[in-house]
Design goal:
Rossmann fold, 5-stranded parallel β-sheet, 3-stranded antiparallel β-sheet, 317 residues, binds adenosine-5'-diphosphate, 39% helix, 2 domains, 8 helices, binds magnesium ion, alpha/beta, elongated
Length: 317
């Protein structure tokens, strides 16, 4: 049994699908495409049923109002009361037919987004010259040179273990290179969404506040935007979040104050397709500099991203 939202992986393997949605589990059989088509048909039918019930509710409510009005002047009030009770019973039945869907829409809370192409100053924000990194006894990065100007969007590809995270750690000065020189514009603000959390034993609001410097009250508002208001995510412990929710929170905290440079390490890991599309829309329009380390080839689909790779010998090509 596989728990996943990785479509490529699932569609090659699975023939039976337990679909968890809106507080219930539905079972579908067949290919992945058949499952998606059947689910779509099921949702369309549900929407039609909701519309029919809503229309009946509107008519019944209107009739109840009218009966109440007539009852005030009518001689035989009992007759109206019986009718109103019957209408109320019908109204209850129709109301119960409506299936409410859990709200899933969210946005990365960003203020002050602008057009990247309109920013005039294309100054160099990051410059690596012949940077080599040795971890343990392994040469991870070999004489890497890279120039990143303001507004540049860059994806660094590479297989597991080639040194993508190491490169972001160098740029963010988490680690020191073995040799070479690094320049990062001191005036540029930089935020780094690492692959995991250093401390996951704090609440979401505390985490968000520590990363962004915003008040807890402001953070809770932004967290509501990221997750919806069905649950009190602000006071929830990070440990309790799903993998995708953790990523959303981390990326949200990283971008909220529009830093000049954002570093994202494997940002799409754990995100479902819907969340990835929201992320890509946000990144596409982001006016600051972005460096993403990932092995997710979908980044090639985003307009305006320069592509670099690290090979198995630690070269950046
Ligand atoms: N502190 C460390 N000590 C020794 N080896 C390390 C250390 N950190 C990372 N490595 C190794 O360096 C290589 C590159 O790691 P990393 O940059 O995390 O790869 P990627 O992000 O591309 O998957 C891996 O082989 C990893 O095991
Ligand atoms: Mg990595």
């Amino acid at each position: 049994m596989i728990v996943s939202h990785d479509v490529g992986f699932i569609s090659q393997l699975c023939t039976k699908y337990f679909d968890i949605d809106n507080f219930r589990i539905d079972v579908y059989y067949g290919s992945y495409d058949t499952y998606i088509r059947s689910k779509h048909a099921h949702l369309t039918k549900q929407t039609q049923k909701n519309t029919t019930a809503s229309n009946k509710i509107a008519l019944l409510s209107d009739s109840i109002c009218k009966q109440r009005k007539w009852m005030t002047t009518a001689e035989d009030k009992h007759k109206h009361k019986v009718l109103i009770d019957r209408l109320k019973r019908d109204l209850k039945k129709e109301t119960e037919k409506i299936v409410h869907r859990q709200k899933t829409a969210f946005n990365f809370p960003i203020t002050g987004q602008g057009d990247r192409s309109s920013s005039k100053n294309k100054n160099v924000l990051i410059q690596l010259n012949d940077i080599s990194v040795v971890l343990g006894k392994k040469l991870v990065l070999s004489k890497i040179s890279l120039t990143v100007c303001s507004g540049m969007h860059l994806i660094i590809y590479g297989e597991n273990g080639v040194g993508k995270t190491t490169l972001l750690n160098i740029i963010s000065q988490r680690i020191e290179p073995y040799s070479g020189t690094l320049y990062v514009d001191k005036k540029a603000s930089l935020m780094y969404a690492e692959q995991g959390f250093i401390d996951d034993n704090i609440t979401c609001a505390d985490y968000f506040s520590s990363v962004t410097g915003l008040s807890k009250y402001q953070c809770k508002e932004h967290i509501d935007e990221l997750f919806g208001i069905e649950a009190d995510y602000g006071n929830m412990n990070l440990r309790l979040l799903s993998g995708g929710e953790k990523k959303r929170l981390q990326i949200g905290a990283c971008v909220i104050r529009n830093p000049d440079i954002i570093l994202l390490d494997e940002p799409t890991i754990s995100l479902d397709e819907y969340s990835v599309s929201i992320l890509f829309d946000m990144l596409k329009d982001y006016k600051g500099t972005i460096i993403v380390a990932s092995h997710d080839t979908r980044f090639k689909e985003i307009e305006g991203f320069a592509v670099k790779s690290i090979d198995s010998h630690g070269n950046l090509i």
